[in-house]
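Help needed: design a sequence for this.
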């Protein structure tokens, strides 16, 4: 009842004088443009938001020219790329750059086109405290100043997603605009995503300052040859913090040709040595990891916080190096899901976990073919990982006894907030089908064992896929079971 009354009260709240003034301005574009140089500072953000919402391109363009703050974070308003707004804002930059003398009140240094949360708009439109805080009007964290080139006047921040299957007129327009103005505009890119092989245009980074790139993600079936084309540019990304490579394979043209494979690997791996700021490394289904992991990690110059090596084949030598590599001794997140450990020496993984007892927060060993014997070797080190908040052992082959032992060894890990375990082997028949009554009974027993030791926050026991419905059987704190058993 109160909520309805409150909603009605809000609905009937009359507009303020400032809101009425902005509405009046927006109804007369010529008046608005002529008044910008005299407009009070505090009205600019709210008026810009109003013009943005009503897609008044002419007003937006001229507001860029008169913008009285060092940064214009328009990307925070543009949750999805909007070509006409981009044209208006970049058109305003063109007007600004064309003027030999910068307008008196204009302080614009940075145009931020990234879709990121930004406090600026809430503060200056009165939605948060500290409406006229000078710190908010001058967001130093957004301003990047490498060596100045030519007569550069403005810095533009943007995140790029390059996908030829879904070409973006927004990206195409920006690319052409930036290419024609690279002598006066510096383009910084915090994050770049590349999709779909074969595609990599080295000219793309002609418009981007490579040292501004902090995150690089490569997806969908790139081959080594294409990745090697990226390698020289990768070596210039000296501030790269996060690198994700997904599904990098050998081209069918060179499949089985070890000489060609080694040639491309020699082009790619040494570039890792230039990534001094790299903290998060994700390698998913990457062909050159096998028997080269020592070279990849050996090239790094600083410790990693995140190491994700998933769906990759690793050799004994790879695991040996991983267990003693100095660049992984401070890992907070380790994910080796999909790495087959059935033929690997389990001592290497145990040794690695022992080195990470003071730092590791997330451990994922999903679908690693881990059996009772291997898990038994891991338990002493695992029980000492006092910072663990999340573990994932799904899709491994563990018995009821070893699962109980695992839960007992995690008794003192009080920071665990998310736990994912496989259902015990005893819940399956000889054909691998889940037996509902066994599943419910054994998972209930395991949950009871754990609750005697400590109270879990988020936990589940999950089976293999059910042949009846194609779903996983899940037992959690709410005892959710397979849908076909209902």
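Sure. Designed sequence:
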């Amino acid at each position: 009842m109160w909520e309805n009354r409150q909603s009605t009260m809000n609905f009937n709240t009359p507009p303020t004088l400032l809101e009425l003034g902005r509405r009046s301005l927006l109804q007369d574009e010529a008046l608005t443009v002529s008044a910008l140089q005299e407009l009070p500072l505090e009205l600019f953000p709210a008026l810009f938001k109003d013009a943005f919402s009503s897609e008044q391109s002419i007003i937006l363009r001229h507001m860029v020219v008169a913008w009285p703050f060092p940064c214009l974070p328009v990307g925070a308003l543009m949750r999805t790329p909007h070509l006409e707004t981009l044209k208006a804002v970049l058109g305003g930059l063109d007007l600004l750059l064309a003027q030999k003398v910068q307008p008196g009140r204009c302080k614009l240094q940075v145009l931020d086109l990234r879709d990121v949360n930004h406090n600026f708009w809430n503060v200056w439109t009165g939605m948060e405290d500290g409406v006229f805080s000078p710190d908010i009007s001058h967001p130093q964290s957004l301003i990047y100043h490498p060596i100045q080139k030519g007569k550069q006047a403005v810095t533009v921040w943007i995140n790029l997603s390059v996908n030829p299957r879904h070409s973006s007129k927004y990206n195409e327009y920006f690319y052409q605009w930036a290419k024609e103005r690279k002598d006066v505009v510096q383009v910084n890119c915090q994050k770049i995503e590349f999709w779909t092989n074969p595609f990599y245009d080295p000219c793309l980074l002609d418009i981007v300052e490579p040292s501004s790139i902090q995150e690089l993600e490569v997806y969908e079936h790139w081959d080594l040859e294409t990745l090697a084309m990226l390698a020289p540019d990768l070596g210039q990304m000296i501030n790269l913090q996060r690198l994700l490579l997904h599904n990098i394979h050998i081209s069918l043209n060179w499949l089985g040709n070890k000489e060609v494979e080694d040639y491309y690997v020699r082009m790619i791996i040494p570039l890792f040595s230039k990534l001094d700021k790299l903290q998060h490394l994700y390698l998913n289904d990457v062909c050159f990891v096998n028997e080269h992991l020592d070279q990849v990690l050996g090239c790094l110059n600083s410790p990693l916080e995140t190491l994700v090596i998933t769906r990759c084949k690793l050799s004994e030598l790879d695991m040996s190096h991983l267990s003693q590599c100095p660049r992984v001794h401070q890992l907070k997140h380790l994910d080796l899901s999909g790495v087959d450990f059935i033929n690997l020496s389990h001592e290497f993984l145990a040794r690695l976990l022992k080195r990470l007892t003071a730092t590791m927060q997330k451990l994922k060993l999903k679908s690693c073919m881990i059996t009772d014997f291997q898990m038994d070797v891991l338990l002493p080190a695992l029980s000492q990982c006092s910072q663990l908040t999340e573990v994932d052992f799904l899709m491994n082959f563990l018995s009821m006894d070893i699962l109980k032992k695992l839960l007992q060894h995690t008794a003192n890990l009080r920071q665990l907030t998310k736990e994912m375990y496989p259902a015990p082997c005893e819940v399956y028949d000889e054909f691998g089908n889940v037996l509902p009554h066994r599943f419910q009974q054994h998972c209930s027993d395991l949950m009871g064992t754990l609750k005697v030791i400590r109270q879990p926050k988020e936990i589940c026991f999950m089976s293999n896929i059910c042949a009846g419905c194609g779903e996983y059987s899940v037992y959690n704190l709410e005892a959710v079971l397979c849908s076909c058993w209902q």
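The CA atoms of residues 75 and 115 lie 5 Å apart.
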